[in-house]
């Protein structure tokens, strides 16, 4: 059975330019990784859970805030390991300085017998689309393209 996740790509416009919010995974494995390591805030779907509800839940768990407003479906992507990610976008604002992530425990250092707690997300930042594509896990970069296409298609329809 393929693992499934859901996530949320928050975006805003600043001086007419599009910015997207990305999350950097916490824990010792990701500490020194940057390009190709960032992600949209996302997580596993619970049994029977609606992907939209899961995306909102995961955003709140990983960043400590819940976006307001309607979600825009971005479709699904499949990451290198086979995980299917249902993605949504929402327009909103978030101050990365206020981030409060949930934590996870793991044995660290390996085979030490010591359990340590780490934040699921250690930081979040706003990026221009071109920079975001470089920072994101490769399969997730397509979500930026999809968001831009949707926004370009609706740019002239706002009242």
Structure description:
With 159 residues, the protein is α+β, with helices and mostly antiparallel strands. Helices cover 21% and strands 35% of the residues. The strands form 2 sheets. Strands 1, 2, 3, 4, 5 and 8 form a 6-stranded mixed β-sheet that branches. β1 (4-14) and β2 (17-25) form a beta hairpin. The N and C termini lie far apart (45 Å).
Look at the helices and sheets and give the structural class.
Answer: alpha+beta
Quaternary structure type: single chain
- Overall pLDDT: 92
Helix content: 10-25%
Number of helices: 3
Largest sheet: 6 strands, mixed
- Count of β-strands: 8
Gyration radius (Cα, Å) is 16 Å
Identify the overall geometry. globular
What is the straight-line distance between the termini? Answer: 45 Å
Residue fraction in strands: 25-35%
Brief synopsis:
The protein has 159 residues and is α+β, with helices and mostly antiparallel strands.
Topology overview:
Blueprint: E1 4-14, E2 17-25, E3 42-44, H1 51-63, E4 72-78, E5 84-91, E6 103-107, E7 115-119, E8 121-127, H2 129-135, H3 141-154
Parallel strand pairs: 1-5
Antiparallel strand pairs: 1-2, 1-3, 2-8, 4-5, 6-7
Helix pairs in contact: 2-3
What are the defining features of this structure?
159 residues; two-stranded antiparallel ribbon
């Amino acid at each position: 059975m393929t693992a499934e996740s859901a996530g949320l790509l928050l975006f805003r416009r600043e001086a007419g330019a599009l910015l997207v919010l990305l999350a950097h995974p916490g824990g010792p494995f990701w500490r020194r990784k940057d390009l190709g390591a960032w992600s949209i805030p996302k997580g596993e779907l619970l049994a029977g859970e609606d992907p939209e509800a899961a995306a909102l839940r995961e955003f709140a768990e990983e960043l400590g805030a819940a976006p307001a407003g309607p979600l825009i479906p971005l479709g699904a992507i499949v990451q290198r390991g086979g995980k299917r990610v249902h993605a949504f976008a929402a327009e909103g604002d978030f101050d990365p300085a206020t981030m409060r992530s949930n934590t996870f425990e793991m044995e660290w250092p390996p085979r030490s017998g010591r359990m340590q707690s780490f934040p699921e997300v250690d930081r979040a930042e706003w990026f221009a689309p071109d920079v975001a594509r470089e920072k994101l896990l490769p399969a997730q970069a397509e979500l930026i393209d999809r968001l831009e296409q949707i926004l370009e298609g609706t740019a002239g329809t706002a009242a």
